[in-house]
Each structure stands twice: as structure tokens, then as C-alpha cells.
Amino acid sequence: MIGAALDILEQCGTPRVLYNDMPLGNPLGKPFDRSMHEATLRAALVLAAEAVAAGQVVETPYVWDALDEGEAWKKHFMWIDPNDPHKYLQMGEENRSKRLENKAKGLFRS
Amino acid sequence: MKIRYIDRTRDYYRAQGFKADYAWSTNDETPFTPLTKPLSECTVTFVTTAVVESDIPKPIRTAQHYDFASAPAQFFTEELSWDKVTTHTRDRSSYFPIEVLRSLEEEGVIGNIASRFHFVPTEYSQRLTIDQDAPAIADACTEDEVDIAILIPL
Fold first, then answer.
1. What is the mean pLDDT of each run of 10 residues along chain B (154 residues)?
2. What range defines the domain where residue B98 resides?
3. How many angstroms separate the first and last alpha carbons of chain B?
4. Which residues make Cβ contacts (< 8 Å) with residue B32, sequence separation at least 6?
5. Does B6 reside within a domain?
6. A25-75: per-residue pLDDT in tens?
7. How far is B145 from chain A (nearest CA, A)?
8. Rounded to an integer, what distance in angstroms lies between the CA atom of residue A57 and that of residue A47?
9. Is B4 inside any structural domain?
């Protein structure tokens, strides 16, 4: 697996992990950075070939933004605005309502 | 600093008023089979969570298999949970690097690309993943004589 959510991959147990410290959505690396994508895929294939035990993790050396030393981008995903709790409760209501609606329409797997 | 996605998602859904935290999969053992042939002789495929058929409603998506030749220039990614503040998915190669894989095939790094790649839905139910989606993909990979399946979730 090529992935960025390392804690989830380790929690669940993954045979081989090529860890790329990138935002979710771009596991191979920065958009349009072909050399990063190629290096990441090569590393994943080498891991597939050379791993000797389950759970091995290989980390690429890449960073999302070399100029962002504080890695400010890492705050964004599922960030909760402490000044607007109502927004999230509203999202939750919509989410639950949508699920009930889907269920009523027969849109579920069994 | 590595993002703690388990904590992040737990807190996010609690903020939405969900009472029960998601119980992540735990397994006593992780399966592992060492490769027994050179990489240069291997057949390789991708398993992606990016969507090909967006007209299938999300709650009823199941594992699917597609010819690599029919991979869309742009997969449908809007309904997936990725970092939409930091980045975008307009570059297919950043999540589905088929061009790179083709160049590695030409170079002889891998033996060949399988005829099909696979879609796996980001399914909340672990039972459905374990009982239906994963076996379907494993069977298809066996059919296609795949040696290495690279899972690349968004």
C-alpha cells in the first residue's frame, strides 16, 4: 500500500507500507511532480519485492512544502473551528438525515 | 509531525454529534507472502478508491474491475474524504500513476501491467469489505495472474 494515513495502516495491520507524508488525495506526491510520483512508485515496487516480513514500513524523504517548515498544512484536514461548534452539529444532522433518506430509498448494501 | 488520523476523525465525528466512535479494524495477524520471482517478471495492478462510475450512488458502490485502457482521465473524487483545503486531485498521476507504471514496464522494471485495475469503495462496514469487496478483488487478481497489487487509497 502507498499511503499517508500511517496510524490507520499500522492499527489495522498492512503487509507492506510505502509511507509518503503527503496530504490525503495525493498519495504519490505533489500534483504534476512526475519525478516524485515515479520515485514513490519505484520505492513501493522495491518494497513489494524485498520485504521479508509483514508490517514493514518504508518512508519516502519527501515533504509537501519545503518552505512550510512548521507544516501548517497538516492542521487543515478535519480541522474543527472552536468558535463555530454549531457548524459541525449541523453537518452531523445533515449526515444522519442523508443516511436515513438513503436507507428509505433502498440505497444500502447487505 | 505525523497526522494522527484516527484521533482527527474521531474528534471530527464527535463534533458532529455522533455518539459511537468508529471501531477501526484490528487483526491478530497481518498476512504476508514474500515475492518468489524477480520484480522484472511480475504482473502489477492498482487498487484505487477513486471512483470511475459516479452515477452509482455512494452507499451501494461495490468492488469493480476495469480495463486499464478505460481508466478515465479524471476519476470522480469529490465524495471521498481527502484534504480539500491543502490540495486537489486534478493530476491523476498523484493518485493513479498509470503513466509512470507504463514507463516502468517499458524500462523493464516490472514484467507487465495487468489487464485490469480495481476499485474498492471506502466502505464503513468492515464486514462488507472482508466478505465481499476484498474477495472479489483477490479473485480478479488471481484470474489476471497478478503478482503485485498496489493499493493506493486517496
1. 96 96 93 96 98 97 97 97 97 98 98 98 96 98 98 97
2. 35-152
3. 20
4. A15, A16, A51, A53, A54, A55
5. no
6. 999 999 999 999 999 999 999 999 999 999 999 999 999 999 998 999 999
7. 16
8. 9
9. no
* Alpha carbon distance B32, B45 (integer Å): 18
Residues from chain B contacting residue A10 (CB–CB below 8 Å):
none
State ipTM. Answer: 0.96
Are B105 and B42 contacting, i.e. CB atoms less than 8 angstroms apart?
no
The order of strands in the sheet holding A2-3 is A2-3, A16-19, A56-59
Residue B33 DSSP symbol? -
Q: Is B26 on the interface with A (CB under 8 A)?
A: yes
Name chain B contacts of A58, Cβ cutoff 8 Å: none
Q: Do A7 and B38 touch (CB under 8 A)?
A: no
- Supply the pTM of this predicted model: 0.96
- CB atoms B39 and A45 under 8 Å: yes
In a domain, B30, yes or no: no
SS3 state of residue A2: strand
The residues spanned by each domain of chain A are 2-67, 80-110
Number of structural domains chain B divides into: 1
